[in-house]
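Hi D.,

Good news: the full-assembly prediction came through. Inputs first.
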Amino acid sequence: MPLRSLRAAIPAGVLLEDEAARAPFLTDHRRLYQGRALAVALPRSTAEVSTLLAWCNAQRVGVVPQGGNTSYCGGATPDESGAQLVIGLQRLRRVRAVDAANLSMTVEAGCTLAEVQQAASAAERLFPLELGSAGSCQIGGNLATNAGGLNVLRFGMARALTLGVEAVLADGRVFSHLRALRKDNTGYDLTGLMVGSEGTLGIITAATLRLWPQLRCWATAFVAVADVAAAVTLLARLRAAVGERVNSYELLPRNAVELALRHIEGVANPLPGNHDWYVLCELSSFADEALNSMLEGALADASAVGLVQDAALCAGERQRAQLWRLRENVPEAQRRAGPSLKHDISVPIGALGDFVAAASAWVRQHVPSGTLVAYGHAGDGNLHFNISFPKETPAEFLAREEPLIRRAIHDLVAAHGGSFSAEHGIGRLKVAELERYASPVTLAMMREVKRSLDPHGIMNPGKLLAVADTLRETPAAS
Ligand code: FAD
Ligand code: 2HG
Ligand code: ZN
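Then the structure:
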């Protein structure tokens, strides 16, 4: 019945009719959830998104926005009811404008991150967001999750890269705020509110993004250090030596490097021997500078005081690409090695060493069948504190142990002043964690924002906030 009414309300060609083509929209990247849907809609314009949401709001039908479906927390997957409408944004794929002089561009939500980067580059500008999923994730999804990634140290997370958005609200109204301004103090930051809202406040249909001049040169090194504390001290020394040129600072334990070497073609470790920890560190500059010698000098100074065990400076673009391939494929290598439990945590960078020591000791003692693979964006205080298990580990074992492990790790994160979700968001997976760790006032404010923008709770029900807060009415009969 609702489907017939939906068909009548929208132009032909918006619904995806082929059942096989609908299947990928009903599960998430990690295969944690398998949902069902009333239908999958692929609108071609902001106006069509608006028509869809107005219908859903009137009919009290839950809406699940979906971008590239690469996120880790199940936020883009419909629930099991078969009553929700999935709205995929892939047909909104235009680059609307690039203003090279203003260092800004306006793109539609369904452009992949790689397409956005290429469009900026074609205008000799840089859009600095960089994730391993760049070829498949969409800029709308990046904004909706406030994505982080490999260049946050220098350029910030997605919110910091966003000047304005166009978004369709739950009732179909269009919030058209594609302002290409760096200074605009006119009330609440509604753009910032939409960024990171994970499809629970509206659907982002376009965004105006900040650009930079293109980078002119890089220097990349693979550095062996004794432990996490040494990596943190080394970063402070590098920043003191070369300032904001430190672009990326990724930490890899020995077992992450070994996983990548075993499972991924075309990667190599340029350092001989075995070391417990490695840092993939990159400097970049907007001017032609002698970055290699700056990095070499800073690493030699650090080596002289015992902070660096060994280091390899990349000889050229090929070796640089190989190292980044190694780093970006650690999640894929881990997936090929067997199941894993992921914890996307951050702590103030000064607490990183203590946190890793305490949490690793807990894992060693309580999870004997698991192997800790803690890697990631150490420069941002963000580690993927993942635990890998052998391929043959029964799913029931993981399901039984997971809550206990998650609780212990996230409690340690909280005790170190950190966050249980540094960059991947809340989705469906971490709703209970938000309830546990956010303060009552924070949660109340979030609920009030949600109620005021989505009074019928149709936007991505059960994601970010608990179901009771997001869908308070049963669907109206149509
Ligand atoms: P989806 O997965 O489709 O959706 C994510 C959430 O956003 C859902 O809640 C969905 O409802 C909502 N949403 C999607 N589009 C819209 C829209 N237009 N309007 C409103 N809501 C919307 N993430 C990082 O932060 N840092 C990393 O370094 C990183 N590396 C990754 C590496 C790999 C190999 C993979 C597979 C993933 C990685 N991710 C990383 C996770 C993921 O790529 C990001 O979260 C990305 O921003 C999700 O974009 P998406 O288009 O796939 O969104
Ligand atoms: C990365 O930094 C991603 O590579 C993925 O955020 C992290 O798989 C993970 O846990
Ligand atoms: Zn990451």
